[in-house]
Amino acid sequence: MREGEVEHGPTGASLDGLERRTGGPAYGGLARLRAARSSHGVVTPEDQRVVAEEVRLPVAAVHGAASYYADLRGRQGTRHVRVCAGTACFVASGGGRHVAEVSRVLGVPPGECTVDGRVSLQEVHCLGYCYTGPAALDGDLPRAGADLAAQLAEEAPPRAPEPVVRAATPPVVLRGVVGEEPSWQAWPRLLAAVRSDGGPATVASRIRAEVATAGLRGRGGAGFPTAHKWRAVAGSDVPPAQRYVVANGDEGDPGSFSDRVLMEQDPGRLLEGLALAALACGAERGFVYVRSEYPRAFDRLREAVAQAYADGHLGDNPHGSGVRLDVTVVSGAGSYLAGEETSLLRSLAGVRATVRPRPPYPAEYGLLGRPTALNNVETLAAVPAIVAEGGRAHAARGVPPETGTLLVCLNERFRRPGVYEVELGTPMRDIVLGLGGGLARGARLRALQVGGPLGGFLGPDQLDVPLLGAALVEAGAPPGHGSLVAVDDQVDPRDLLRALWEFGARETCGTCTPCREGTRLGERRPEAAARDDALLDTMENASLCPFGTRLPAVVRGLRRVYGEELS
């Protein structure tokens, strides 16, 4: 099945509470709802009824999705502008002043549409232009820079420069981006081995063994061993047509833009990594889920999938191997929490991206209740090099058990912002002061946000900690997706605290009470909530997923770094 087609799967597939309902992934439902909103500005009850019939879901489930996702709620103008309110853009404009400036020049408050329906404005929490913010999408056209409001008012020329991308070590995932190696080199060789070396099961075992030897762990933040996940899916007792592999391209952490670079500049490597994962898991269906705030990445991946089919890499019997693999690219609809694996799989199925308790884990009960291996973009982009060179070469880098490289993203406050591939274990000081060159324009580093809004904060006296998950967790700032947002001394820490709570209140899925009510309290009384250790303890210990459990630690980290300035 080619991209863009809607699959209807086997009778009896289930989706959380929608037990034993016929129908396969209803991802086409979100696309249809988005098209309806674009067509006449709002998703109507009739739109929801029609979509429910087309994708064979209850109207209530479709209504739940339409009322949940930011891209589907409210009225959309003929000109729809999404302005970034994420940490990097917040810092770049000295505390989020750009949002008010954009609102003024467009003549519409955030979250609203003009009476005549001509212009609407939506706040989002990252657009992937952290290196040159503040940023906005005017329709699907990016705009970025200190003069953002003037660009949107057509008083300054539009611009959205590409980031600096550099490998500070022999590259693994950046090979195609820096021009060292084209994609789709390992896949044909592995398929040739399928024909000659004992069939797909033998080659799948070989791939899993190399990835295990490499010590590859998820680069999306959780750090789970990749080979363990693939082994669990491969060991399931369902047929290959009912196993799935999914690439998580919902890079939503404010400050991260490495996945956007990979998807836009080297999409074939991601697809090759997904294909190798599918072979390793014995799966015949693959999906790439791309956040809607990355329209260019979505287009590039669709083009790359079409080219991969044309080149014989995908489909039925690629390169005469006797295996089958179909890949579909799917767009999200505006939800930070859809980056969490169980939420993403619900979104992929066309319903609200709420969190599902674990266990069971997706490798056992994933998309439509079937075994699913879900990996983020950077993880999959590392697989072709590991398979081609062998796991030992990858394991020789880093500091065991944390082996290999990591992409780090430096925001606009640095003298040399951009994406850097570095070896795990590199001291943070070497990254901040060496690669990044310290802060630009003589600014003074006051805090360093590591790993996005669910990561943490380091003070300027903590830069000797190495880029290792265990060390950074101990320091109070897990590395997450590898983003480093420098906060200078021009940002009021109370404004930063307020922005963190507002982010939490807007992006919580609302499933569990501690996170839902805790973030609302924080939004209403940010400083009081930050000092309320009973509230923070309740969120930390009783929330359902890392969104609620990690946010209190981030707030406490901000208190630690700024001390009396937040008391």
From TrEMBL:
SUPFAM superfamilies: Nqo1 FMN-binding domain-like (SSF142019), Nqo1 middle domain-like (SSF142984), Nqo1C-terminal domain-like (SSF140490), Thioredoxin-like (SSF52833). This is SLBB domain-containing protein. Keywords: 4Fe-4S, Iron, Iron-sulfur, Metal-binding. Residues 494-539 form the NADH-ubiquinone oxidoreductase 51kDa subunit iron-sulphur binding domain. Residues 1-21 are annotated as: Disordered. PROSITE patterns: COMPLEX1_24K, COMPLEX1_51K_2. The keyword Transport does not apply. It holds the Pfam family NADH_4Fe-4S. The keyword Iron applies. GO terms for molecular function: 4 iron, 4 sulfur cluster binding; FMN binding; metal ion binding; NADH dehydrogenase (ubiquinone) activity; oxidoreductase activity. Belongs to the complex I 51 kDa subunit family.
